[in-house]
Design brief:
Length: 494
Amino acid sequence: MEERHDLIIRGGMVADGEGGALVRVDVAVDGDHISGVGQLDGATARQVVDAPGQVVAPGFIDVHNHANNEVDGGILRIPHADNMLRQGVTTLIGGNCGGSPLPIGKHLDEVAKLPIKQNYAILVGLASVRSKVMQGKPEIPNAAQRDQIRRMAAEAVDEGALGISAGYFPDYVQLPEIVAGARGASERGGVYASHIRSEGDRLFEAVTEIIYISELADTPVNISHIKTFGKANWHKCDDLLAMLDKAAARGVPITADRYSYLAAYGGLVDMLPGWARAKWKTGLTPDERDRMRQEIQEKFERMAGPESVLCAPWWPDPAYGGKSIAQIAQEQGKHPADMAMEVSFRPKTSYVRFAMCEENLRKIYAHPVVMVATDGHLRTLDDGYNHPRNYGTFPRVLAKYVREDKVISLETAIAKMTSMPAKTFRIPQRGLVREGYFADLVIFDPQRVRDMATFENPHQYPVGISTVILNGGLAVKDGQTTSDSFGRVLRKGS
């Protein structure tokens, strides 16, 4: 009897996702699963995708993004956004850097009702849990409150969160409450991901802290968007990576992720000194403003100056969008530090800050525990200024760090995008091209794939990715997003 499938991908070079050599075999899909990998010459299918000269890989898993962030759009408002899908991302993990909706179960139920374009999972944010327990007060929690943080973290994982995230710690957030949240998630099989306390001047202390948290809470730990931030800290990269090696050698389950650009993106409030962030909404005294002005100026001096900070409003704004703090200050006749303070207080204005170096990024991607992630957001084409990583992170790795610079092999890069994320965040049956796994697949031309988004024109789709298959459905066909939505909510334990 003739073997007939729903879909067959013929003639492609299959990357298994584990780093194995490419193999020219066919891939069959039935329903939402891969039903065969091998020579399928005698089989037929309702749909056939011819892939000679192309790589067939597992769908990319983006372990660090902010797809949940409703202030910045978010999946509830723009479930149709395809800026991630077109770069091969089939699974998004939101809730990073300490912020998430609460309760997690309700949020996931709301997302599940929408026609989403990717699979969607989430971490519970420690800052969100802490704020609820402490009623938003910048106080140190007592033992009972820490236990409440632990219990809420555990409940969030029970509701479907993959673990807990943390980041952007104000000075009043202390180690015991972080450990409580991480331990609560770990008790239910969740992981801990963290934007560390410092990526620059106190980098080593921050990495030491996150390793210590892993050991105290008995949890795997992932360092979010690992970097050496600011020119004054670029020399620390080798020692940073050596710290990861030493921790792993003594059994600490440590990983990290990184986007493929030299500029960060975040709220302009990040330009403010840590002590001022809890006060800026309620107002500062004249002495505090003078102190903050001086510290911002010192921060500029440690980096590449106010020229290296570009404003990124969340809607089109010709007065600010894509312009540097130095440029805006000159146009308005103000000191750059004063301009930075003023823009920081504007609603919905973020920044793109050039503060990293190419040599270090290459070393980071070459390290065996580092995965690829966007640190991005869902975007609608041509709507506002944004970071090019929202459109180009994964293709940029394949073009620049694999094909051109040969920092890592193609097989290694794909593993950093697929099986490593699935294993780290404990997502079952995804991240490999293997019979019985969900049919999340990306097909691309290894000689042509490339990011097109730039800092001058960030709203550009990549090229060279012809097909994306999501849960067995054709989500991208002939390089164009289809009208169908095959995404699913992925809950811990489901």
